[in-house]
Design brief:
The chain has helices spanning about 5-15, 90-100, 135-150, 160-175, 205-215, 250-255, 260-285; strands spanning about 65, 70, 110, 125-130, 135, 150-155, 180, 230-235, 240-245. The chain is α/β, with parallel strands linked by helices and about 290 residues long. The protein has one domain: 3-Layer(aba) Sandwich (Rossmann fold), CATH 3.40.50. The model is unreliable at about 1-30 and about 75-80 (pLDDT under 50).
Length: about 290
């Protein structure tokens, strides 16, 4: 693994790479049909693209986003909360992995359901906005088997006690015999490859709150969501197999690449990208 730049030098690296500003428009994007480049539905003006060595296209890390059932309507768009920040967040984080580490990364990523037979080909999966997530009965058993056989799940971008209770209930169906615990900041995940200071508050707001926070100091979306929690579940060998990022929105930090200077500097550069890269690094090396 090549030596990575420290977070304080991250912005300089991006500027030198000439890829700091990618203009983005409002919108959540859509879901690319099978075989379609997700850049065709991105809502930014441009996201980076690259190719890997011919013949080794499958020997790469692939960012996999999970398509899940969602029956609630807190925000009026019900069953598509899993598409939040897609595809720009996935594309941008994949590029940063390719740029800042020696990992070879799939430039397009994938979206899969838990019951997709291809799930076990991929060691890392991502679930976003699980406040209304409902696992199907067959998905519970599949997800448990996937995680206990070396798979890794990252959960992100849900806020408040109501959404926490729903997620905890669904995870309990997968692991009735395991507890969700706070991950201590001494854990290797917070130290490699980017050293994240123990005193750094890892809460990443959405970009609107983030921009306003330079004047208001408010980075939480709800009054019962003031404190960011990084929690997880460990398997029998002590490997972290689930990481749950509660009261924070790393996906927006990846999605809003260079669109808002203060937001990028304070939240994307210092928090969302270092934590996201560290999580994937841990998932791929443990």
């Amino acid at each position: 693994m090549k030596k990575l730049l420290r977070p304080a030098l991250f912005l300089a690296a991006l500027l030198l790479a000439g890829v700091f500003v990618w203009a983005q428009r409002e919108g959540r994007g859509g879901v690319a049909p099978a075989g379609v480049d997700p850049r065709q539905i991105q809502h930014s003006g441009e996201t980076p693209n690259w190719t890997n060595t011919r013949g080794f296209e499958k020997d790469v890390f692939t960012f996999v986003r999970i398509n899940y059932s969602s029956h609630g309507s807190r925000r009026g768009w019900g069953g598509r909360r899993w598409t939040t920040d897609y595809p720009d967040a996935d594309l941008n984080l994949s590029y940063r992995l390719q740029q800042m580490t020696s990992m070879k990364v799939d430039p397009n990523g994938r979206t899969l359901t838990i019951s997709d037979p291809e799930l076990f080909r991929f060691p890392f999966i991502y679930i976003v906005e699980p406040g209304d997530l409902i696992f199907e009965e067959n998905e519970v058993a599949i997800l448990r088997r996937y995680l206990l056989n070396g798979g890794f799940l990252m959960v992100d971008d849900f806020w408040g006690e109501d959404e926490w209770d729903n997620l905890a209930e669904q995870i309990k169906r997968v692991f009735p015999d395991r507890e969700i615990v706070d991950i201590p900041r001494s854990h290797p995940l917070f130290h490699r490859p980017f050293p994240i200071p123990e005193t750094l508050n890892l809460q990443v707001p959405n970009y609107r709150l983030g921009e306003d926070s330079q004047y208001t100091g408010v980075t939480w979306e709800r009054e019962d969501a003031r404190e960011c929690h990084i929690r997880g579940i460990f398997d029998d060998k002590g490997r972290l197999c689930v990481i749950i990022c509660h009261n924070t929105d790393n996906g927006d930090g990846w999605e809003r690449e260079g669109e808002y200077h203060y937001y990028f500097k304070e939240f994307s550069e210092k928090k969302a990208y270092p934590l996201g890269i560290n999580i994937i690094f841990y998932a791929m090396t443990h």
